[in-house]
Amino acid sequence: MTGGAREPGxxxxxxxxxLAFATAAFIALLIFGLxxxxxxxxxxxxxxxxxxxxxxVVATAVAVVAFVAGLWVAVRQRPASFWGSAWTTAAAYLGYxxxxxxxxxxxxxxxxxxxxxxxxxxxxxxxxxxxxxxxVSAWGGIALVRTRARRPxxxxxxxxxx
Length: 162
Hints:
By secondary structure, this protein is an all-alpha fold. The chain has one domain. 67% of the residues lie in helices and 0% in strands. The protein is elongated. 34% of the residues are buried.
C-alpha cells in the first residue's frame, strides 16, 4: 500500500491479518457448529459406519483452502465488496462437499456411497452449518478490511490529558 504517513493502528486492517482472523474464525465455527448440530440432532455428520474420520478431515481441509482462496480474492480488492462473502461461502461449501466425496473414496467407499454421503451433508443441517460458518467468517474478514476504526484505547492512554 502506498500513501502518506500512517499512524500506527489507524486505518483498515491489512488483508493478510484479516484473512488470518477470518480463517481461524471459520475453522472454529465449523468445528463447533458441526459438533453442536450432531449433538442436538443426535446424528453423526457421516452416518455411514466404518469410514472413520478421514472424510471429515479431508472435507474440512478442502473447505478451508477454498475459503482462504475465495476470501483472499475478496479482501485484496479496493474497496473490498461484501459480495465476496457470497462467493467465499459458495467456494467453502462446495469445497466441503467435494472433500467429503474424495475423503469417502479414500477410505474405500464406492463412488455411489461417497455421493450419497456428500448429498446427505449438502441437504441437511450440516450443510447449512458449513455455509453459515463460511458466510459469517467471510463477512467479518471483509468488514475488518473495510473498517476505518482505530485500535481501542483506555482513557489514561491519551496524551492530551496531561
